[in-house]
């Protein structure tokens, strides 16, 4: 009996030891490689941008670096074209997407999202000649208006769903799309409110910002489906940095101060 009990205790101890050193596949790979590989599409102010010296900076970049620091691994940025960012994740080239990605049903069918880390929405930049004539997205729902936005974004989806009568022109980058309005080739540009607010402040007189968002869009970190351990880690990390003040410090740096603009202009 003593021998049997000893065998059971040894088996339990072995199981406990194995469980202690084994995490889900994503955390396991991060630990083994010593790297946290993060996908994003640089150019989305102030979330992720390329600075004058070639480094990547922004709100998401700082949060990602803080995450890697707490993990005790190296932060590895992977700049990826937006239309290929989910396939890049799913082929294992990065561990997570931290790129200002809106949580929606179609994306959620392909990836798992952690709890939202920020909530934004779509706002509108209009040609100054339309000031007073266009006061909300509803006024743009007319075939006489042309709206520009970035390909594959929630802005494009919102236009197709809510402003379907207007002519839609899509572009590979938000920078190319918004120039259509600034240059008088489009009546409006629809995109995420933070980008529009910054652009309007930099281009006073060239565009008018209707800053009240007309959609509700929570942004979340995305990972490959089926790894509850990584989701648990991300949600706990978010709670921690929001509780200890880290999140607020990073937020204020990028959303309440524009001193960083000189690094990208």
UniProtKB/TrEMBL annotation:
SMART domains: PBPb (SM00062), PBPe (SM00079). Residues 1-23 form the signal peptide. Residues 35-258 form the Solute-binding protein family 3/N-terminal domain. GO terms for cellular component: membrane. Keywords: Signal. The keyword Transferase does not apply. The keyword Signal applies. GO terms for molecular function: ligand-gated monoatomic ion channel activity. InterPro entries: Iontro_rcpt_C (IPR001320), Solute-binding_3/MltF_N (IPR001638). It comes from the Bacteria. Gene3D superfamilies: Periplasmic binding protein-like II. Residues 35-257 form the Ionotropic glutamate receptor C-terminal domain. Belongs to the bacterial solute-binding protein 3 family. This is Hypothetical binding protein component ofABC transporter.
């Amino acid at each position: 009996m003593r021998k049997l009990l000893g065998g059971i205790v040894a088996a339990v101890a072995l199981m406990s030891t194995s469980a202690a050193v084994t995490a889900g596949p994503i955390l396991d790979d991060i630990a083994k490689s010593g790297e946290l590989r993060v996908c994003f599409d640089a150019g989305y102010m102030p979330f992720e941008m390329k600075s004058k010296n070639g480094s990547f900076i922004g709100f998401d970049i700082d949060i990602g670096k803080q995450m890697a620091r707490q993990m005790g691994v190296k932060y590895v940025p992977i700049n990826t074209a937006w239309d290929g960012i989910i396939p890049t994740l799913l082929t294992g080239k990065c561990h997570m997407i931290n790129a200002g990605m809106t949580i929606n049903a179609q994306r959620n069918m392909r990836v798992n999202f952690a709890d939202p880390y920020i909530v934004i929405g779509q706002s509108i930049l209009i040609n100054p000649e339309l000031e007073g004539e266009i006061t909300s997205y509803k006024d743009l729902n007319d075939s006489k208006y042309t709206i520009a936005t970035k390909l594959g974004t929630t802005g494009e989806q919102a236009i197709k769903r809510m402003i379907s009568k207007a002519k839609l022109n899509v572009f590979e980058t938000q920078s190319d799309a918004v120039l259509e309005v600034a240059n008088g080739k489009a009546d409006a540009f629809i995109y995420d409110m933070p980008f529009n607010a910054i652009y309007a402040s930099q281009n006073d007189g060239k565009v008018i910002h209707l800053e009240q968002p007309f959609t509700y869009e929570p942004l979340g970190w995305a990972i490959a489906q089926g790894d509850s351990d990584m989701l648990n880690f991300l949600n706990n990390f978010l709670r921690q940095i929001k509780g200890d003040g880290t999140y607020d410090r990073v937020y204020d740096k990028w959303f309440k101060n524009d001193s960083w603009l000189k690094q990208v202009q």
